[in-house]
Automatic annotation (TrEMBL), chains A, B, C, D, E, F:
This is Cyclic pyranopterin monophosphate synthase. The lineage of its organism: Bacteria, Bacillati, Cyanobacteriota, Cyanophyceae, Nostocales. One of its GO terms (molecular function) is cyclic pyranopterin monophosphate synthase activity. Catalyzes the conversion of (8S)-3',8-cyclo-7,8-dihydroguanosine 5'-triphosphate to cyclic pyranopterin monophosphate (cPMP). It comes from Halotia branconii CENA392. Keywords: Lyase, Molybdenum cofactor biosynthesis. Substrate binds at L83, C84, H85, M121, E122. It comes from the Bacteria. Its EC number is 4.6.1.17. It holds the Pfam family MoaC. Residues 23-158 form the Molybdopterin cofactor biosynthesis C (MoaC) domain. The keyword tRNA processing does not apply. Pathway: Cofactor biosynthesis; molybdopterin biosynthesis. The active site is at D136.
Amino acid sequence: MQDNFPQNFANLTHIDHQGQAQMVDVSDKAPTFRQAVAAAKVRMLPETFAAIEAGNTPKGDVLATARLAGIMAAKQTAALIPLCHPLPLQKIAVEVTPDPQLPGYQIHATVKTKAETGVEMEALTAVSIAALTLYDMAKALEKSIQIESIRLVSKTGGKSGNYFPPEP
Amino acid sequence: MQDNFPQNFANLTHIDHQGQAQMVDVSDKAPTFRQAVAAAKVRMLPETFAAIEAGNTPKGDVLATARLAGIMAAKQTAALIPLCHPLPLQKIAVEVTPDPQLPGYQIHATVKTKAETGVEMEALTAVSIAALTLYDMAKALEKSIQIESIRLVSKTGGKSGNYFPPEP
Amino acid sequence: MQDNFPQNFANLTHIDHQGQAQMVDVSDKAPTFRQAVAAAKVRMLPETFAAIEAGNTPKGDVLATARLAGIMAAKQTAALIPLCHPLPLQKIAVEVTPDPQLPGYQIHATVKTKAETGVEMEALTAVSIAALTLYDMAKALEKSIQIESIRLVSKTGGKSGNYFPPEP
Amino acid sequence: MQDNFPQNFANLTHIDHQGQAQMVDVSDKAPTFRQAVAAAKVRMLPETFAAIEAGNTPKGDVLATARLAGIMAAKQTAALIPLCHPLPLQKIAVEVTPDPQLPGYQIHATVKTKAETGVEMEALTAVSIAALTLYDMAKALEKSIQIESIRLVSKTGGKSGNYFPPEP
Amino acid sequence: MQDNFPQNFANLTHIDHQGQAQMVDVSDKAPTFRQAVAAAKVRMLPETFAAIEAGNTPKGDVLATARLAGIMAAKQTAALIPLCHPLPLQKIAVEVTPDPQLPGYQIHATVKTKAETGVEMEALTAVSIAALTLYDMAKALEKSIQIESIRLVSKTGGKSGNYFPPEP
Amino acid sequence: MQDNFPQNFANLTHIDHQGQAQMVDVSDKAPTFRQAVAAAKVRMLPETFAAIEAGNTPKGDVLATARLAGIMAAKQTAALIPLCHPLPLQKIAVEVTPDPQLPGYQIHATVKTKAETGVEMEALTAVSIAALTLYDMAKALEKSIQIESIRLVSKTGGKSGNYFPPEP
């Protein structure tokens, strides 16, 4: 558990010495290639899962809509998360995979950039909005759908090095 | 569990008979007062929680930033969720409460409208973006923070009646 | 031709007596139900059309993406068209229909509101952005795709009465 | 006609092997200077054209409004077209030229960037929204105004080389 | 001076009893017609003023651009001001008047709605962005241009009654 | 006074030879580090100032909200100011400082980029929206609050060199 905890514990980077929220200054960093992968789960009743799987045939619009909403939301990250930097994005991919064991859907998003700071928030925003879109499209069937385990799966590139989460 | 599952199981309201995603037509509904409450949890390491709680003194900007991000995001719901209707909103409130047992934060959002359709998605979007903002502000300390249990807590008003989730 | 031309020719409603662009004042109008239907054509080479039709199998994402882009764009109309009023929208539907004779696609959008002014621009914006999205997704195959005949198909409700275009 | 059709006909770049819409990965491309020019026509009745030309004097706000709407819309392209990359833009120019023969207006947009991918969609979005704005400002006079021939006029820079449309 | 100061001085309406920023709950208010007028001044060197006045001939695009930017910004008020309610707007008018005595420009904005809360912020946002646009278009000539006296000129309608500022 | 006035007085850079508003072409410039600092004052009655200072304890949300609104607005500059270029931003900082002598608040914003053009408008937009947010949060107490002296404090980097305003 210690492994994914940085040594420099001094303070939060987004809070200055007066306790005020601030955007991190990245002007002294060089742009490098960076990638982040995030994930989320959408858990629902078996009946709801069966309806989406069936309703998704033959056009697949439920999952396609969720995927597109995630891609488009990633591009709005800097407008939604107050202290995020606006970044160029070179790739946004969102996958929505049925998981009959859950039952529900596993969502993954991969975002790439060449920039002074990483794209973790873009990937996390993509899976969050994709999951919310799934909720929206199925809420007439079941209001108790839950979105779970929104998390960073990996982060590569950048000065702070790569990140892979600890084994559960 | 059956109780929160509608009788009309025929199909998904956002998918038409050709399997295409669609916005629900609410033009034959009368506007009524509606309220939705949603919740989310942000789980983190004890050290991270302690740092936010400490760093939050005396200005409290971490939690204030998350709350404001949630309020502002609720107003962007129709732009983010493809099939949501743009609605007037009469109240958006977001609470971020420390939970030392988690450890982490419990987030609640309450949204009110007088409209032809409900504001569940606005409340769910508010807690999601508030949670992502918390992640963003603490990610330099811990990348393994997880957002959990994004869920609808209650829904009142509207033709389909009130909703309270089943006992866990 | 005269039939679809209003008697009051005095001046353009969006230009004041000094020749300055202005938003029409609708504060003395009562909100009524209104609907507008708009259409567009996307013309392409037979090979491009065949590729989209084939590539669209089995998930249908090309047309689904165009439809969703149109729905979402309709909600941004007041942000895009400078003098449009922000309106509540109760229904946005976009259809993209293959037309082998064109060859290409026929796009239709239907928008409904209960408001003081109509939703022609929302419907026209929906078909335009849906058409541009089709272009975007096929431009690697053919850059000479053309968008044609963006037009109002019908308008019902409102003080100025219904509109149906003259026979061609 | 063959000339403007690429050899690599294998599949649509925005659709992956599962038929899902995707954003093209441009992370292995180097940023280069790129320019795109797009055009559109707005066709109207002679009376409408005369009214705009007259009403445009002396302040010219109809055409100025359309031009500005096009410039501003180009900056929103990545938010409107689901699979477009957000790009820095170094120049956006929109021209609206009266064409008494049409009768109506010819609209041209030129967009420049230094980026990993081109700005065709930005130029096409600019002419489309400029044309819709013209419609909006004249629709009280004539609802049968049509937008025609939205097309790419030229594209220079980038790996795929320059593009000029075939002779009509 | 007392006259424009409300009796109920207990606390700020946007801050709850815990000192947290909040959106005012307007769900128990009835929608009524409301209007707000705001103003701003843009002061510059005589040479700059002369250049804008001259450069504005014959197309007048400097002032037209500022006016349009103000109109469009008013529609973005709820996205910019964190605790503002999203409101329907029935009229937005912006005037930019040359004032050789200043020298510079006087800007006025009038906004109307029928809603549960007023449109002061929409009018103030309109004049602010119109003024900033003027700055942007003239900053190559003079960087010392100042925007002054952004203020509410009048407010009519609503429960709190009309407001006219005290005599200076 | 002459010192802050450029020699090249020929015309406004945002107006072409036909008098039409245009975006400046920066495609032949190299990206360099640039910083801009802007300022604004918010003047109010002593009672209002006292209430904000008191109400701001212990959570300080009035000033925190204004600061965040300014930071977020800076990221929307290109969407608000018609002829601004969309730019990457590497730092946005907003300070809101109580000034009992005014009485009211002094607002400063600092914005950094590495780009082909400067960030004066981003800094000016940040202070303007921060000031408007302060107004919004205190307007129930006093509607006669005024925003004054929105101005550029300094500009460094870029071809045109550094700028510091003349002594008052």
